[in-house]
Amino acid sequence: MSDVLDLLLVFPNNRTRAYGTLAAEVAAITPPVQSGLTAAYVRERGYAVRILDADAREWLPERVGQEVAALKPRLVMVSTDHVNSGDVTKMAAATETVRAIHAAAPGVPVLLEGVVPSAYPKWMLQDEGADYVCQGEPYDPIVKLLAKLKQDGPGARVATREIPGIWARYGDDLVESFRAPMFHEVDKLPMTAWDLMPPSDYRAHHWHCFDRLDRRSPYASVFTNLGCPYGCSFCSVNVVAGGANFRTHSPEYVMKELTLLNKQYGVSNIRLLDNVFTIRLDLVEELCDRIIAADLGLNFWAYARVESVRNPDILKKMRKAGVRWLAYGIEAAHERVRAAVDKPSNPQIIEQAIEWTKEAGIWIVGNFIFGLPEDDLESMRMSLDMAKRFNVEWANFYCAMAYPGTKLYDQVKAAGVELPKDWAAYGQYSPNAQPLATKYVTSKEIVAFRDAAFREYYENPHYLDMLEKTFGRDARDFVGRILAHDLKRDG
Ligand code: SF4
Description:
The protein has 2 domains: 7-175, Cobalamin-binding domain (Rossmann fold); 198-483, Alpha-Beta Horseshoe (pyruvate-formate lyase- activating enzyme). It is 39% helix and 14% strand. It has helices at residues 15-19, 33-44, 54-57, 61-71, 87-104, 115-119, 121-127, 139-152, 251-265, 281-294, 312-321, 335-339, 347-359, 377-390, 407-414, 443-458, 461-471, 473-483, and strands at 7-11, 49-53, 75-79, 110-113, 132-134, 166-170, 173-175, 219-222, 225-226, 247-248, 269-272, 299-304, 323-331, 363-370, 394-399.
């Protein structure tokens, strides 16, 4: 291998922007697994790679630019986020980082990849300054692009549709491509390059460690499946694939990574990164049996969907394997509101899933969204009251955003609804957060309702007593410290 660095994978920093004063103590520091998987895949094919997690290091774009100038890689890949709708709030940091790299290291080509770049490659090239965009998963497209750059030098030109997934810009000249095919045999993907992004750099969500707040690091995330078979209109998880694209790892594959993380890096706090962990219950059961037999003492959290939890016994087994937290996207209490975003979960099934989960001894994160298109003040109140009635151990309250790349975005854009003009306004905690206005409530009313709902939930003695009884005084005090931070909102 030569001394030339072929690929620098950059995860841009938007922690302060996304979480404001909560960034320092409260917000999790999550590993950019998509960068770690791409790094491992490209390295396996003989290229020299490094990861610069500017988010974990809290490096501003200018500092990243200086580092790129010093390293002079053949290519920089700036990733947003494949996993969450948070991708959109990464866009501000990502585009500032692209510009800072161009200023500090002219001639080093920069590629953007992630949810929004996959949805709008032309926009990213024309307006956001990228030299290349990857549409679809980046594994093979990046390897092919590096081979081209290595062979033809920095002046290499990619032709139209030459590399599936790779769009390019040379001055004003745009070179189009098409979405790269998805990687189907996911057990053939190498494990995340944890040596390039050590789990000691990361920190679990505070609630995930309510019973161990002094041990939030090290922290890691692992996929057991990729994609999601559902199609909720507000959600961006299938945008990179261009549609529902569900793939599973074998339990052997997952066990190998869990064992490495535990034995080599001392990790016990792990997020199962799947959009919905509980789709293939046969695989979940087999994985749980293996984890129980290995007795690694792990502390997992995972997303589930209420319909996918089809029997209480699997929940008991999951708890035995260390799945201590399940996050349910309940979104809204009113059926009309859920149905309008293609998530028509049956109310009895929601109640039953919550009851079974509590009975299994698994703690619950309830996710609720205020301001979905059919929401009015009364239905938003119903959602808050539902969260309070369930008295879940943690509740996330979000404002509905029409994230670019989603079906909802296309719907509201076609209807002429006003959308944010800058990326930061998609940030849930941004001062200028601008959620979708509905027929019944304004954007400002939704933000105000969400912020008041957060206080109402977490100041409620019924909740705080449950929290202290379950996790001890430290957890109650931690929530008190969160409440001491006032979210700054414009206007
Ligand atoms: S079930 Fe969850 S992950 Fe899947 S599309 Fe709906 S909101 Fe997204």
